[in-house]
């Protein structure tokens, strides 16, 4: 994959990071003061078996640092993974709306650090839980740092930030027993939801496949709030930010997520790390929805309500530029754990709106970093440092790393030549957008925020049949974990305001009385852009394909299929009963990537069983291998087999799927691709057909449900 030439901004950020890197090769062990240490295995004692002496400064320094080397984890978004990269706009069309250079000058490539995360779980929780995912991007622009702190879901649970502590307390493990970890399937969360109908739109998204992303590389990102762009004339335009992945939007299935949590709890962070290390750099396109200020009240919802979207059919998403992640951090703690995002980190040309949730975040993020990172100087940590020059009158404090010279630390001054000076005007300096604000001081919600169900219905109506089935199953699972049946019943009542049939089917699965009639007619509106299945990418790039082999396998056929899959950008891996090599039927050897017992079908996107009677007999005799194929079929994945490999598919009992019986044809039935031909006559259509099925991500026609179509 080719990348754009390096820019001065890339070099500036790299120099900052390089100055903080310490390579231990060829060095001597010292204390923190630089004194060489000759023995770090034994503490200083009064005799070989005596007590340790207080004067052992190395021992005390080493233990003290260890005692203090953990910082408080984030209250939310504690578990994350990050990477460096760059953003570059396609052209300058957005200059009509904003003076933010990094969005408008196609010659400028801006360094970024992106952190993906789950919301609810602790740092040690699993990656594949049902949860919202954070998608936070720090742009190191020449005008200063800009943080776009978003999620993979475009709306939020609450409308006003004063409710955020209540929501987080409700969704976190229950305080009396600290159970369950990283899960919303418990009483306190659903009790909160039952009493806060504003949450219903977000709960529809959370119960959907959006909460189970296949990969960070295959999920959308959203700024959530309505922000404001400001142009050179000081004119404002409302904006919503969107990230769209180049690989399409794809999810896991619920059964998979639970098994992956046991097989590989680091599934998503490992995927991000490995793909970057392999040079398969993840990409997203930044897009914007723009609304003139004259149209602020032109919608049937309030633009300042964070529980609402702007349907793309009403305001299209216009492409702005490309984000590429191309370098992993050198140290997880120093970079991914210490990166500090803040919604109020803005640059000239981007400003806030009066969204009450955004206003609360603008306070909360800074307040949180002061505790987590030990004081006010966290912006000096290398991963957080701007590439723009920094000159302030701030001094001292915990973890101050600068050595400020001169007598003055105040403005205005004459002793320091008036520096640092305030000068210039917008757009060179940040200037808050000017708008008239007036009103009576009240503690109340705007009436325009009080439609809690219309967009939840819009989301439901926009889902494909498989997506609806998964939402119903998720509600049944989550509410089935709720002990108090009155909470279950209240949620069903709320769902009856969303869609009557949805409420009936959910109620039927959780043991509460179904509503007899709809209380609010379904408005019938939909937004096709909300369905993941409508936005799938036609590619199998970076898809992991398991190829099951044993001694006697058709080596020529395996090599041919592997080469054809790699040509399409996929990542085929040979799995065998044991690690090492397998001897092929033609006497050649194939190197095995992994022993099949160390992995599972849930870690792969598709499966192929090659020809070779001896190989297939060995694999068919292994219950784990047979289960591997059957489970991949259960999870709606593409499966391929050629020659005698079809016998393993028969052993796995793939229902009524039709399999090939002659060497001239390639049969595709319910995502299962077969041909009776072996390597010497393998039709070229086999790999093409298999790749098409993998690109579908899942073969949903295998799934059945009682949800009305």
Automatic annotation (TrEMBL):
Catalytic activity: 2 H2O2 = O2 + 2 H2O
Biased composition range(s): Basic and acidic residues: 7-26
Domain Catalase core residue range list: 30-419
GO molecular function: catalase activity
Listed cofactors: heme
Annotated keywords: Heme, Hydrogen peroxide, Iron, Metal-binding, Oxidoreductase, Peroxidase
Enzyme class at the top of the EC tree: oxidoreductase
EC number: 1.11.1.6
Function field: Decomposes hydrogen peroxide into water and oxygen; serves to protect cells from the toxic effects of hydrogen peroxide.
Name used for this protein in its record: Catalase
Organismal lineage: Bacteria, Bacillati, Actinomycetota, Actinomycetes, Pseudonocardiales
């Amino acid at each position: 994959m080719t990348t754009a030439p390096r820019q001065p901004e890339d070099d500036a950020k790299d120099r900052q990071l390089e100055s903080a890197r310490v390579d231990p090769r060829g060095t001597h062990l010292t204390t923190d003061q630089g004194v060489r240490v000759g023995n770090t295995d034994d503490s200083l004692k009064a005799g070989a078996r005596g007590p340790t002496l207080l004067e052992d400064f190395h021992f005390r320094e080493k233990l003290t640092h260890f005692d203090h080397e953990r910082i408080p984890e984030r209250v939310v978004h504690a578990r994350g993974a990050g990477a460096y990269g760059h953003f570059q706009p396609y052209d300058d069309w957005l200059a009509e709306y904003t003076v933010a250079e990094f969005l408008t000058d196609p010659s400028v490539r801006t360094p970024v650090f992106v952190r993906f995360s789950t919301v609810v779980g602790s740092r040690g929780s699993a990656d594949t839980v049902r949860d919202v995912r954070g998608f936070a991007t720090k742009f190191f622009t020449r005008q200063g740092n800009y943080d776009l702190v978003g999620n993979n879901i475009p709306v939020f649970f609450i409308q006003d930030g004063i409710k955020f502590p209540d929501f987080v307390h409700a969704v976190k493990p229950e305080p009396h027993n600290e159970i369950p970890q990283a899960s919303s399937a418990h009483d306190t969360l659903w009790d909160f939801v039952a009493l806060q109908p504003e949450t219903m739109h977000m709960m529809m998204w959370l119960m959907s496949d959006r909460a189970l992303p296949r990969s960070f590389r295959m999920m959308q990102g959203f700024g959530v709030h309505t922000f404001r762009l400001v142009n050179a004339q000081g004119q404002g335009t409302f904006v919503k930010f969107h990230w769209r992945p180049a690989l399409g939007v794809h999810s896991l299935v619920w059964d998979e997520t639970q098994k992956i949590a046991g097989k590989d709890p680091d599934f998503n962070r490992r995927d991000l790390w490995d793909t970057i290390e392999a040079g398969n750099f993840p990409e997203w396109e930044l897009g914007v929805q723009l609304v003139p200020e004259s149209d602020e009240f032109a919608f049937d919802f309030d633009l300042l309500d964070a529980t609402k979207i702007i349907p793309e059919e009403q305001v299209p998403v216009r492409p702005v530029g490309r984000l590429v992640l191309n370098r992993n951090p050198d140290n997880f703690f120093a970079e991914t754990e210490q990166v500090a995002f803040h919604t109020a980190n803005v640059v000239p040309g981007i400003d806030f709106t009066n969204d009450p949730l955004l206003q609360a975040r603008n306070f909360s993020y800074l307040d949180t970093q002061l505790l987590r990172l030990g004081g006010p100087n966290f912006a000096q940590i290398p991963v957080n440092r701007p590439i723009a020059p920094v000159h302030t009158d701030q001094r001292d404090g915990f973890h101050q790393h600068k050595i400020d010279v001169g007598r003055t630390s105040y403005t205005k001054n004459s002793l320091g030549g008036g520096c640092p000076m305030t000068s210039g005007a917008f757009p060179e300096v940040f200037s808050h957008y000017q708008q008239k604000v007036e009103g009576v001081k009240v503690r109340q919600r705007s009436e325009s925020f009080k439609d809690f169900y219309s967009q939840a219905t819009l989301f439901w109506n926009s889902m494909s049949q498989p997506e609806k089935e998964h939402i119903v199953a998720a509600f049944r699972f989550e509410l089935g974990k709720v002990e108090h049946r009155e909470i279950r019943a209240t949620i069903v009542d709320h769902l009856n305001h969303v869609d009557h049939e949805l409420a009936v089917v959910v109620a039927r699965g959780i043991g509460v009385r179904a509503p007899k009639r709809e209380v609010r007619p379904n408005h019938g509106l939909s937004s096709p852009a909300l369905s993941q299945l409508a936005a799938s990418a036609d590619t199998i790039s970076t898809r992991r394909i398991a190829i099951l082999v044993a001694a006697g396998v058709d080596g020529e056929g395996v090599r041919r299929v592997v080469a054809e899959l790699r040509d399409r950008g996929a990542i085929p891996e040979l799995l065998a009963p044991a690690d090492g090599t397998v001897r092929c039927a033609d006497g050649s050897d194939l190197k095995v990537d992994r022993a099949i017992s160390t992995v599972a079908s849930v870690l792969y996107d598709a499966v192929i069983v090659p020809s070779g009677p001896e190989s297939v007999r060995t694999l068919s005799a292994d219950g784990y291998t047979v289960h591997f194929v059957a489970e991949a079929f259960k999870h709606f994945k593409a499966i391929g087999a050629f020659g005698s490999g079809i016998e393993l598919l028969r052993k796995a009992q793939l229902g009524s799927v039709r399999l090939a019986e002659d060497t001239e044809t390639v049969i595709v039935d319910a995502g299962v691709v077969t041909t009776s031909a072996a390597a010497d006559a393998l039709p070229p259509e086999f790999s093409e057909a298999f790749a098409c099925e993998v690109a579908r991500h899942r073969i949903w026609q295998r799934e059945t449900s009682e949800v009305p179509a």
